[in-house]
Amino acid sequence: KHTMYPLEFRVASKQSELSWFEPIWNDSACLHFTLSIAKRYLDFVRGKKEDSKAALAHFGKTLSILQQRLASDNDPATSDSIILVVFGLTMAANALGEFGISLQHLKGLHTMITLRGGLSAFAGKRQLQAKICRQVASLPSSADLGVALGVGCKPLFSSDGFLWNSCVASQGNTSISRLNALDPDHLICDSALGHFLESLDTRLCLVWEGLSEFVRAANIATQCNFTIDGELYQEVMLSIHYRLIDLHFDSCNVNETIRLALLAFSSTLFLQWRGIKTRYEHLAQSLKSALSLLRHTTWAIPIHFSLWLYTIGAVSVFNEDEQAWFQPDLTEVLRAMRLKHWDEVRSSLKSILWVSALHDAPAKQIVEAALPVSQR
Predict the structure, then answer these.
(1) Cβ neighbours of residue 178 under 8 Å, at least 6 residues apart?
(2) CA 73 to CA 300: how far, in whole Å?
(3) What CA dihedral angle connects 90, 274, 215 and 202, to 10 degrees?
(4) What is the pLDDT of residues 211-235, one digit of tens each?
(5) Cystine design at 330: which of 5, 157, 239, 310 (Cβ 3.0–4.6 Å)?
(6) What CA–CA distance (Å, rounded) separates 265 from 374?
(7) What are phi and psi of 98, to 5 degrees?
(8) Dist CA 187 CA 276 (whole Å)
C-alpha cells in the first residue's frame, strides 16, 4: 500500500497491513491477478521483454474466473473483488500502453460503480475509492486523460456531489490546523500575490486555499517526521483534482493557466506513485501552450509567480525537450529578479506552493542550470 504515496510522505492508515492481503487470500481472481502482476514486474526488472509462461498462465486464469463470475447468476458482478480485479486490469493495460483495452476496462468499471450507487457508495472504503479515482486520472488516451485532466469530456466519476466539498474545510482542519500552528510563515502573505489571487475566479481561489492548507501541513509533516492521515490525504486528492477538472476557462484566460498549473502541481502530490514517474501528455501540452502565452500577454502576474509557473511545470509534467523550450523564459525571470543562488530561488518558490521534500531536488537541478546564463 505504501507505493500509492510519494516516498517523502508518511501517510498513516487506519487499516492494518493484513487488510490489504485479505482480497488475495480470500479471492481466487485477486490471487491469480496479483501473481500475474508480480511475475510481470519481476520479469521487467530482470530485463525480460516478453511475459513469462507463468505470468501468462496466471493472467489467463484471472480472465477465466472473471468471465465465469460475470456470467453467473450467483456471484454479484459488482462485488468488491470483481471491481478490484477490473481496476487492476485497467491499470495493467495502462502501464503496458494498451490504451484502447484500458479504456474498455474503465468503461466496465464505471458501469459496475454506477450499479453500486456511485463512488459515494464506497465512502467507508476510501482505499478502494481512491484507487478507482486515481486510475481515472492516469489513463493516457485522448478520452480519459483529457477527461481526468480537464482537456475534453467530463470525467466518468465526477457526478458525485461530495467531491466538490472541500474536505479540508469539512473536517474542520483538525489535523491540518495543528500542523500549521507549527509553521512560523503560516500567516505571512505576500501582498502582490494576495492581490493577484483575489483577481482570479472565486472557485479557483477556493481550490487554491484548500491546496495551500494541505501543502503547509505536508511541509511540517515531512520536516518533523509526522504522519499524514490517510483518509484526509485521499479526500484532498479527490476534492482538489475533480474541482480543478470541472473548471473550464478560455485558453487565453489567466485562470486557465493557473488551473493547469495547479493540476500539474497537484499531480506531484497525489498522482505519482512511489518509484514510478507518470507523464500526463495532455496536461503537459496544455500547460506548455498556456505558458507560451505568457510571452505575449499583458496579464499582471507577479514576477515571482511566473518563476513558480515555469519551475513547477518543469518538475511536474514537462520532459527534457519542454524544459529546454522554456529555459530562456526561466532565465529571463531569474535575471529580472536578480536571483543569483538556489537558496534565493527556493525562498521565492516556497512563498507560493511548494513541498520542499518533493520539489527541491528536481527544481535545484533545473534552476542551477539556468542561473549562470541569467547572470551574463
Answers:
(1) none
(2) 63
(3) -20
(4) 999 899 889 888 887 777 777 777 7
(5) 310
(6) 25
(7) -90, 75
(8) 35
Q: Sign of dihedral through CA atoms 338, 342, 347, 352?
A: positive
Q: Dump pLDDT digits (tens) for 63-93.
A: 898 888 888 776 667 777 788 888 878 777 7
pLDDT over 70 (residue 155): no
Residue 232 · residue 239 · CB < 8 Å: no
CA dist., res. 148 & res. 246, Å (int):
9
Phi and psi, residue 223, nearest 5°: -70, -35
3-state percent breakdown (helix, strand, coil) of the chain, nearest 5: 70, 0, 30
Q: What pLDDT, on a 0 to 100 scale, did the predictor assign at position 132?
A: 57
Instruction: Tell me the pLDDT tens digit for each residue of 28-65.
Output: 888 998 898 888 877 777 777 788 889 899 989 998 98
Q: Position 120: which residue type?
A: S
Indicate the length of the chain as a whole number. 376
Residue from 52, 28, 24, 57 nearest 40 by CA: 52
Confidence (pTM): 0.75
Asked whether the beta carbons of 301 and 268 are under 8 A apart, the reply is no
Name which of 286, 262, 242, 258 is nearest 197 in CA terms.
258
In which element (H, E) is residue 229 found? strand 228-229
